[in-house]
Description:
By secondary structure, this protein is α/β, with parallel strands linked by helices.
Amino acid sequence: MAERKLTVLQLLPALESGGVERGTLELGAGLARAGHRSLVISAGGQLVSRLTGQGSEHLQWPVGHKSLWTLRLVPRLRRLLQAERVDILHARSRLPAWIAWLAWRGMPPGARPRFVTTVHGLYSVNRYSRIMSRGEAVVAVSAAARDYVLGNYPAVEAARARVIERGIDPTIYPYGYRPAQSWMARWYQEHPYLLERQVLTLPGRITRLKGHLDFLQLLARLLRDGQPVYGLIVGGEDPRRAGYLREVRTAVQRLGLQGSVTFTGQRMDLRDILAVSNLVYSLSRHPESFGRTVREALSLGVPVIGYDHGGVGETLQAAYPAGRVPPADLDALERVTRELIEHRVEVSPIAFPSVQEMVTATLELYAELVDA
């Protein structure tokens, strides 16, 4: 593998924020460091400059636009694969995977790149989602994601489904980390009311998946009994989900939480916010395949409370079982929160897989496919 330099093309809908996007950037940077050529196709976004600054090339195509017109990209992509002599075609989302597969299938077998898909989510099981099981190798970001693939798509041979967990950088999320004094001074100048409160933080974009309404219900219950808590909702707002955002803000008013919860919007200093939080939450009612912020918070030594299913339950079982809560059980959520506020259970240091280990495992898979 060290002798041959690969050209790898990743496809995803956009480069705004989220786990899929971060995984794409991390792999792109790893490819560039190893001397390979990293190409990425997406509709663009705020992370493009970071992607290209780390050595990848970006092509702005609307591969995530749900329209029949998007199918016009199929022959264009086929020409690109041939012209750039792409070795690995790696799709990370369903619609881009359809475009990639149709282009790939239309090439002579001997001229095709190797086709890889990564299952980042536990999607609804249907013909549209099945495309993520059609890779010559199907990468699952957790054991829960692999179980989902093998359990719902029996045509996938077990050897074709590989677990390569998303990594975290232990130098960025070291155990016991505390933010710089200058950051702390600015933070508490902006939020002085946090100094005497238990800070409960829910990270994640403002989408129904992330459990904001359960989090608000929890805050209301705790405040009703005089618990000194304050909620932080840290994540960007999606213009396509404006209706859900209105629903969440209406719930804040209805539950009387004005002055007890802050929507920070998208932040580049999430690590620091996690580090000064007393408890971090993961409350998706639909099981998530991985749950990166859960591992990031635990790596810092911050307790996490999460619904015990999918990749989040998998991580909590291994690293912090005190934070496990039955999914959608608000009574249990309140009980566990009260217990950890009153009797904090410390997080033991744990070595989660690193970003470099994730990159290395992916490169080994690529080499195996190309050599075959």
